[in-house]
């Protein structure tokens, strides 16, 4: 068996270049990552200061934080999750590794939408699992459907759901999610649901898979809604049948996330007013982009129901999204992500804008991009 090949995340390369340009004095607008520019809630930071001065900070799993997360499931989704089903991790990324390694054996086939978050495909490969990519386009709002999963022959062992999704922000309807659960039950397909963008919806409440399928595994994080990406804190909800498998892996491979972050994360749960202010800003940024992207000649976009992304079809301008985003960065100082990261087949004619930036910076990016895209359009004609 050879060591699996893992693709690079091209946006990381562009971001490194953007930071070099900034070090050389260029003014850069960072829209390449889904990274809130807002920082942790104020009260969470104050709690971290207090803990730094008073706590020895050894290995620690916060019982109050697990209880708070369990309460969150009850209050937000009406779902009972036991604290012992919740595992604290250094973000959604290791929670995802933990979920996959606990639930599947090497060689298992896992279905996922294409386009999708770059790490899904690569993490599956790294764990000797086989990604089964389902092409999803505008007709299915770039999301998996029950029909597409039902059509897979043979059935996969698992499926990854992401709603709201990265890179598109699209959200599965309640009916489609329930239909997916039915198909997966009938065909013995285990669901792993990435709910990292919950809380960031512009079309109303988003359903957790746990409302329909208590046997699913759920990955979540403080990196997005809570604006605490660098604190490296997230969680996995495992079904009772997998608790022992997860426990042994946590004890050997992961241990605990930073205790400082766990203390701060607990406080962050009660900073709703500040966090909802961020969501209002994202909504405003989204509306601004929807209004102004046509000025860039961009008309075909995925419906940005949630998260903080717009995935745009730029096929009329390029068939090399990486070179296109690199040129945009070099000429304007606006960093974006090439579609190639999310879709190795069709991604060369897409790009992703993250609007998790301040409205001022977004307006500045638009000011620079409008004339640049006009030139790109003329060159492509
Ligand atoms: C869909 C999705 N899942 C997981 C992650 C990883 O997040 P974390 O910072 O919690 O590891 C990201 C980060 O951008 C993401 O977009």
Automatic annotation (TrEMBL):
<dbReference type="InterPro" id="IPR050596">
    <property type="entry name" value="AspAT/PAT-like"/>
</dbReference>
<dbReference type="Pfam" id="PF00155">
    <property type="entry name" value="Aminotran_1_2"/>
</dbReference>
<keyword id="KW-0032">Aminotransferase</keyword>
<keyword id="KW-0663">Pyridoxal phosphate</keyword>
<dbReference type="InterPro" id="IPR004838">
    <property type="entry name" value="NHTrfase_class1_PyrdxlP-BS"/>
</dbReference>
<dbReference type="GO" id="GO:0006520">
    <property type="term" value="P:amino acid metabolic process"/>
</dbReference>
<dbReference type="GO" id="GO:0004069">
    <property type="term" value="F:L-aspartate:2-oxoglutarate aminotransferase activity"/>
</dbReference>
<dbReference type="InterPro" id="IPR004839">
    <property type="entry name" value="Aminotransferase_I/II_large"/>
</dbReference>
<dbReference type="GO" id="GO:0030170">
    <property type="term" value="F:pyridoxal phosphate binding"/>
</dbReference>
<protein>
    <recommendedName>
        <fullName>Aminotransferase</fullName>
        <ecNumber>2.6.1.-</ecNumber>
    </recommendedName>
</protein>
<dbReference type="InterPro" id="IPR015424">
    <property type="entry name" value="PyrdxlP-dep_Trfase"/>
</dbReference>
<comment type="similarity">
    <text>Belongs to the class-I pyridoxal-phosphate-dependent aminotransferase family.</text>
</comment>
<keyword id="KW-0808">Transferase</keyword>
<feature type="domain" description="Aminotransferase class I/classII large">
    <location>
        <begin position="29"/>
        <end position="368"/>
    </location>
</feature>
<dbReference type="InterPro" id="IPR015421">
    <property type="entry name" value="PyrdxlP-dep_Trfase_major"/>
</dbReference>
């Amino acid at each position: 068996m050879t060591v699996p090949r893992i693709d690079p995340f091209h946006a990381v390369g562009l971001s490194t270049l953007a930071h070099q340009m900034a070090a050389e004095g260029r003014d850069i607008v960072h829209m390449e990552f889904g990274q809130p520019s807002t920082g942790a809630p104020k009260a969470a930071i104050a709690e971290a200061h207090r803990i730094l001065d008073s706590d020895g900070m050894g290995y620690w799993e916060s019982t109050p934080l697990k209880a708070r997360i369990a309460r969150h499931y009850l209050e937000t989704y009406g779902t009972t999750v036991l604290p012992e089903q919740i595992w604290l991790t250094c973000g959604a990324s290791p929670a995802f590794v933990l979920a996959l390694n606990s639930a599947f054996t090497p060689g298992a086939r896992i279905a996922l939408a294409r386009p999708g978050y770059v790490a899904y495909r690569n993490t599956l490969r790294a764990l000797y699992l086989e990604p089964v990519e389902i092409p999803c386009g505008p007709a299915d709002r770039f999301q998996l459907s029950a029909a597409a999963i039902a059509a897979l022959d043979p059935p996969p062992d698992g499926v990854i759901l992401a709603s709201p999704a990265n890179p598109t922000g699209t959200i599965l309807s309640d009916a489609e999610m329930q239909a997916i659960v039915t198909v997966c039950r009938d065909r013995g397909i285990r669901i792993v649901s990435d709910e990292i963008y919950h809380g960031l919806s512009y079309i109303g409440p988003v359903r957790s898979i746990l409302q329909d399928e208590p046997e699913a595994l759920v990955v979540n994080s403080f990196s997005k809604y809570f604006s605490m990406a660098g604190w490296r804190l997230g969680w996995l909800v495992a079904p009772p049948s997998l608790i022992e498998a997860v426990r042994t892996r946590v004890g050997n491979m992961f241990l605990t996330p930073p205790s400082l972050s766990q203390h701060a994360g607990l406080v962050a749960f009660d900073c709703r007013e500040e966090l909802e202010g961020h969501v209002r800003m994202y909504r405003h940024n989204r509306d601004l982009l929807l209004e102004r992207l046509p000025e860039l000649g961009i008309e075909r976009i995925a419906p940005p129901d949630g998260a903080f992304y717009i995935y745009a079809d730029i096929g009329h301008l390029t068939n090399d999204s990486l070179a296109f985003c690199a040129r945009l960065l070099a000429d304007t100082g606006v960093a974006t992500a090439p579609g190639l990261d999310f879709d190795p087949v069709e991604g060369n004619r897409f790009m992703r804008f993250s609007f998790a930036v301040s409205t001022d910076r977004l307006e500045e990016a638009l000011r620079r991009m409008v004339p640049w895209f006009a030139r790109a359009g003329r060159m492509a004609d």
